[in-house]
Amino acid sequence: MHASRKGSDGSDVLVIGGGIIGLVTAWRAARRGLRTAVADPDPGGGAAQVAAGMLAAVTELHYGEETLLGLNLASAQRYPAFAAELAEESSQDIGFRACGTLAVALDADDRAHLRELHALQHRCGLESEWLTGRECRRLEPMLAPGVRGGLRVDGDHQVDPRRLAAALLTACERAGVVFHRATVAHLTVVRDRACGAVLDDGAALPADQVVLAAGSFSGRLDGVPAEVLPPVRPVKGQVLRLTVPRPYAPFLTRTVRAVVRGSHVYLVPRTNGELVVGATSEELGWDTTVTAGGVYELLRDAHELVPGITELPLTETRAGLRPGSPDNAPLLGPTALPGLHLATGHYRNGVLLTPVTGDAMAAVLTTGELPEVARPFSPRRFSPVPSPVPSPVSSLAREEQPA
Length: 403
Ligand code: GLY
Known about the structure:
Helices cover 27% and strands 26% of the residues. It is of the alpha/beta class. It folds into two domains: 11-49 and 163-231 and 327-400, FAD/NAD(P)-binding domain, CATH 3.50.50; 101-154 and 234-324, 2-Layer Sandwich (D-Amino Acid Oxidase, Chain A, domain 2), CATH 3.30.9. α2 (66-90) crosses α5 and α2 (66-90) packs across α7 (354-367). The longest helix is centred in the first third of the chain and has 25 residues, at 66-90. Bound molecules: glycine.
């Protein structure tokens, strides 16, 4: 473990950003004995308040993302033990549900797309089973009669991100993490080393190591030298919440999803009757407006899959920002600026990657080394100086990626 170089007013680790990635980093660091602080005006808020919580390593596989798949699967495998440990330390259940997923096709184009995904999953050694439309409806009777076939993926589960965020917050507090409920004005760099941050009220937070985990805002923190500023951008997702009235008639038993006219739509049923319908994918900067068009498209596509949803009360509409990176994969670990680490850029996989991110960041903060599974995700792959770290995704493969 790094010995602290700070006085009693500083921390070993300052995490900038209290979303689920910042919180899991802080929790894991504190559990390893590091004096840890988090700076965020609203810890536990952010994208986790919007996300559906699919753990979709297999159904969200894309061409050329096999290295990312390795990280996704490593995190998915950790989820049961992670959920149990977090429940123990926070006295809260995070709604981890081993429910499986059914990805369905509504027309011949969708079916061709799913067939390609099935072949890719097969090549990657993943478990998924092709079903006819009738077999899909036998599993999920609320599906539209027009469903032409589907992929049954019993390993893609779900968690409730709001409960995950709340549990991480409590676990952090119980582990002694100090919270500064304020906005960070800028990173502090002294003699070419990150050594803390300053809040917008002028308060200085000295720290031996700093982790920038501010989601889509990570790319615009003042004071971060341009060459280490993460290339992260906001990708807006609008999400709806419907409620199955009590007593709950069986509506859906597992996550149901499809690609309709090139857009992803998914329905994630919770045991408490909540049905989450997501999500748009929009490159509009830091805009989180819920639009009539976004709600219309989600309801239209979800209705084509499961016509009965129009009977349900629409109880919430929200938009959040995914932290997108140039290769859709996260940036984890040390930057070229000594003392500054990144844990950002998780894009569509933030909830899924929470356990492995916490473990990887705690390891690098205590030993200086990223674990093997996280090494391809070093931020140095984007540094201007050529780096020996290979990109997790080749540009050729990205071009071939289906919508
Ligand atoms: N992983 C689901 C989404 O980002 O919409």
